[in-house]
Amino acid sequence: MSAEAFNPNPTIVNTGSSWTRRKSASERHSLWITDEDEDDYGSDDGEEPIDGDEVFDLIRSISDPEHRSMTLEQLAVVSAPQVTVTNHKNHVFVEFTPTVPHCGMSTLIGLSIRVRLLRSLPTRFKVDIKVKPGSHQSENAVNKQLNDKERVAAALENPALVEVLETCLEGAGRRGQPADA
Amino acid sequence: MEAAERLVRTWVASPRDKEVEDTASGIASGEIKLLHVVKALGEYLISEEGDLRNKGVDFLAAVLSKCPPQFFNRQSTKVLLGFFTSKLDDTETVIPALRGLLALTAVPSLIEADAVEICTSVFAHVKMQALVQAQRFIVFSIFDSLIAKQRDALRNMGDTFLSAYIALVDGEKDPRNLMVAFAIARVVAIEFDISRKVEDLFNITFCYFPITFRPPPDDPYGITADDLRNALRSCLDASPLFGSPAIPLFIDKLNAGSPVTKRDTLQTLAICLPVYGPGIARTMARKLWSSLKLEIFQPTDAVTEEEALKTTQVLIKTIYADDSTPDAEIEGLAKDACEECILILKEPEKSQAKPAIKVLSAFMSTTPSISRYTLSHAIPHLIKLFLNPDELPNRGAVLTLLFSLIAAARDSTLKAASSTSSASPEEAPFLLPYKDEVLGALITGLKTPSSTLAAIEGLSALVTTPGLLEDEEVGFVVQNVNDVISGPREDASGVIDAALDLLTAISATAPTHVSESTLPLLFSALPDRAPAREDAAAREKYRAALSSLTRLCSQAVLFETLVVRLLTRLSLLCSSGASSDDPEPAAAYAHALLTTLANVLVKKAERGDVDVPKYIERLVPRLFNLLFFSALVDREGLFVATGRIVTVAARLVNLVIQTLPEARQKVFVDTLVAAYLKGEVGQLAAGDLKLPMDDRIAPFEPGATESQGNLVAMFSQAIVALRKEITISVGDQVEFLRKLLYWSVHEAKNALQRESAWHIIAAVVNKRAQDLDSLLFPQLAEFWQSEIQPPNSADSRRLAIGAWTWVSKALLVRSHPQALPTIDRLFELFDDDDVNWDAARAVGLIGATDKILTKKNHVVIKILYAQRYANSVLPKLVEGAQSRVDPRRQTAYLVALTSLIKSIPKSAYEHEMPTLMPLLLRGLDLPDTEIRANVIDTLLAAAQSDVSAGPKDIKDGSIVAEHATSLTAVMLKNSSVATMADMKVRIAALRYLAVLPRVVRYDVLHPQRSVVLKTLSIILDDPKRVVRKEAVDARTNWYTYNG
C-alpha cells in the first residue's frame, strides 16, 4: 500500500443499529400475530425474487481497502438505492461512490464488489458495476476496467491482488451486523 | 562416630539419597554429631584426587541442607563457613561448596559479618559463565536467601555489593534464574541506596524488556511469559530513579514494536509512570503524548488502542496528581491535548473525530480538575457546532460525540461514588454547569430524523447520571420522547426501540412520568373494538402500541396499569365479540392483547420480580372469567374455539401459579377442581362478566363442546405449576389419572386438549409417584393392553402411544425405577407396520427436554437423567439399526436413533460418533424430511463444536474426514430445491456444507471443491431468500478453502 493515504480522514455515515428488511406483505396482512416460539423461516410457499436490498446486503460489509476497520456502507461508498435488480432481464446494476475524486482505490473497491457478486449471485445475472457519475476523475477508465471480463479475469490471476481482495471480503458475510455480533 | 563413618563410606562408594537422609536424621536425633561427619569425611575433604574432594564436600553440603537449621551453633557455623568459602577457589569443589553455603544462609546463627564474607568470596571466586543453569540457580538462591535474612548486612556493603552483584548476574538468560534475579533486583532497587549505580542496575533489568520468551511445548518448569513479564515489571517500577532512562526506552519500543510489544509497553508504562513521578512525566509528556496519540488515532487494533487510552489517563493523572491548581490555570499536556482534540472535532463527521472524543472521554476519568477543564472546553465547542447553521447536516455526528462525553462524565462520577465510601458528601456531577445547553441541544436533535438516535443515546446518558436532572426535567424529556414513539412503527434504524429503552430506564427511577404521560398515549392507540379484517393499517397501529407496551411495562407500577387497562379492553371485546358478523378480527385482537401480557409476564418471571404472585388475585380470576364467559355465551365460541387464546391465557395462569407459595397453591387448586370437575365456577372465575346460570362448565363430560374442551388447557397449565407437596383434591388419584388417559384418547377433540391431558398426567405422575406406585402400574399395563395393542385403529393407537410417551417422560426425569421398563414396552411395537415409526420416534422424544417438565414447574428432576437414558438405550438402538435381519425393524431402530440423538445432549453420544456416523448417513436416505433435518442438525452441532474447539482439539474431524466425500454429496442433494422441497432441510444442509471446509483438511476435500462450487452456483438461485443467504455463505467458504 502506498505510504500516502488517499483520504486519511473520511466521513462516516451512521448506519443505525441494525437494518431489517421490511415486513413481507403476507405478514402485514395476517390477522394473528405470530407466537415467539414459532420459527421465523416464513412460509414454505411463495417465491421471493432477488431484489436490490438483497444484493446490497451482500456487499455492504465489504471492508474498505484503505480503512480496514470500516465497511463500504459506513463510508457511504455503497448504499441500498444505488443497487438495482431487474429480474426479468437478469440484470444487476451497482453504482458506487469513491470517498474522494482522486481515490486510487476505486478500482480495487469495484473489483471486490465484482468478486463478491461473482461468488454470490446466480450465473444468469449480468452484473454492471460503475462509479457514480462525476464522483471520480478517471471515471471512464475505472468503469471500463471493472466491466471488462478479460481484465477482471487477468486481475484475479495476480496472487498479491487476490490476497488483498480476500482480506476486504473477509467481513462481507456480516451483512451489516457489527463485527462482534 | 562409627555410624557416621559407615554412612560416609557407603555413600562415597555409591551415592544414594538414603545415606544423606540417614545422616541428617541421625544429627537431628542426636545420635550422630556434626563433628563425627566431618571427621569421617576427613580423608576425602583433603584428598589429592579432585573427584574424591568433590564427593566429600558434596556429601557434607547435602547433609547440611537436610539438617534443621537450629542444630548449628555459632561455632560450627563459623567453622563450616570458613571451610566452604575456602573451597570456592578449588575448581573441583566450587559447586558443592556453593550448595553448602546456600544451606548455611538459612541458619539462624549466621551473623552479618558471615553474610558479608559469603558475598565477598562468591564475588571473588565464582565465574557465572563457567556454570550451567542449575549451578547458577544456586548462586541466585544464595543471594535470594541472604536478601531475605541478612538484608542489612548487604545494604551496609554499599556500592561494593551493588557493583559486584551487577557484574555477577549480568548476561543471565534462563527464565528460572531470571525469576529469582528479578525478585532480588526489585528489593535492591527499593531498599538499597542505588543512586550511584542507577545506570548499571537499569542496564541489567531493562535489557530484558520487552519479554519475548515463549515457553517450549510441555515445559516442565511451567514458567510462562506472563510470569516473567510480571516479575520484570515489578523491577521496572521499583524505583523513581529509573524514570529518566526508562521513558525514552519505552517510547522507542512503542514506536517500533509489534502489536504485542506495544501492548506490553503501554501496560508497563501505566504501571511505572505513577512511580516515576510527576516531575519526569511532565518533562517527557510531549514525547509520550505524540507516541500515544499515534496508537489512538491510527490504532493497530482495538486492544492496543484501549491500552493507549488507559496509559494516557495514567500519564495525565501522574502529571496532575497534585489537584490544587485552579481549574482555569491548567497548563501543559492536558491543555495541549485538549486543544488538539477540539481542533479535530471541528469536523465532527470525519473518522478522526472518534478517537479525538475517546481521548477527551478518557480525560473524564482522571482528576476532577482535569474533568472540569475538559468539559469546560469541549461542551461549549460541541454546542456551538450544533447551533451553527452551516453544520446542520452534521448534527447527528455532533450529538454522537456529545453522548460519548456525557456517558464518560457519568461513568467517572459513578466510579468515584462506588470507590469512595457512601458517607462522603455527594459531589455535584461535572456536567451540572452545562445541563441546560446540553439538554436543549439534545431535545432539538430529537426532532430531526437524522439525529434522533444520537439524541436518544445522549438523553439516556443524561438521565442515568445520578443527581443531574430535576424531576420536572425528566418529565420534559419523557414528553419529548413520547413524540418519537408515537411516530410510525416501521423504523429501520431502531429509533423507537432506543426510545423505549430510554423510557424504561427512566421508569426504573421515576415511573410516574412514564405512567402519566407515555402510557395514556399508547393506550389511546388501542381501539375498543377490533378493526375490520381489511383495515391492515389500524391493525398495524395497535400492534405497534402493544409491542411498545411490551418493552416498557415490566416495571411494577407500569405493569399494574397495563393489566388493568388490557383486561378492561378484553372484557369489552368478549362481551361484544359474538355479536359482530366477522368475529375473527376481534379474536385476533384479544389474542394480541393477551400475548402482550404474557410476554411482559415472562420477562418479569425470568427476572424473579416480587410482584408476580399478587396477580393470582388481580389477573387469574379475570382470565377464567373471560374465557368461561365466552365458552358459555358465545355459542360459536370463537375466542376459545381456535385454541390460540386459551393457550396464551393458560400460559399466563401457569406463570403466576409457579410463583405462589405452597399454602396459596393449595387454596387455589381447590377452587380450580371445584370449577372444572363440579361446575362450581363462582370462586375461580370472579370478574366483570356475568356467567349465565342456565349452562355450566363441564369440559370433561361426554358431549362437551370443543370450546369447553379447550378450557382444559388452562386447567392443565395450572396443575402443571403446582409444587410437589400439593395433592389435587379429587379423591382417588389413580382413578383420576386413568380417566384422563382414556379421555385423552377417546374424548379429546384436538391436539391441544390431548396434550393438556397428557401434561396433567405427566405432572401428577412425576410429583406424586410415591402415592401412586402400587396402583398406577397395573393400570398402565391394562391401558397398554386395551389401547395400544392391535385391535384398535392405527390412529387411536398413535394417540395412546403419545400418552405413553408422557408417562414415560415423567418417570424418566425423576429416574424412577419403573421408567426404563415402561419405555422398553415401546420396542415391542418396532415390527408393527402401523405404528412402528411412531413408537420409534417416541423412544427418542422421551429423552428430550420440554416446556412442561421443568424446574420452574417444580418438577422432580434428577441430574444427568438424559445422559443415563442415552447410555442405556443408545447401544441397543445402534445394534438394532446395524442388524440386517428384519429391514422393517432395522428402519424403526434407525428412526428411533435419529430421534434420540436430536433430543439428548451432545456429550451423551459424542464418544459413539465413529459408530453413529454411518448410521446417520443412512438416516439421511429416509424419506421423512423431519428426520433428515434432525440428522443434519446433529451433524452440524458436532461440526460446529469442532470449529469452536479449534484445530488442536478436533475430535470428530477425522470421522468427518473419513466420510467427507459422501457427506458432501448427500448435503448437496439435500440443499437443492429440485430434490428437496422442505426449506428447513435445505438450510440445514447448506449450513453443514458451509462448516465442512473448517473441519476437514483441504487435501481430503480438494477433489470435491469444483463440484461443490458449481452445484452451489445453481442453488444461489433458490426461490427462498433465507436459503440463498446460506448458499452464499457456504459458497464463500468453499471459495476461500485452499491448502
UniProtKB/TrEMBL annotation, chain A:
Domain of life: Eukaryota
Official protein name in the record: FAM96B protein
Organism in which the protein naturally occurs: Auriscalpium vulgare
Automatic annotation (TrEMBL), chain B:
Name by which UniProt lists this protein: ARM repeat-containing protein
Organism: Auriscalpium vulgare
Domain of life, source organism: Eukaryota
Phylogenetic lineage: Eukaryota, Fungi, Dikarya, Basidiomycota, Agaricomycotina
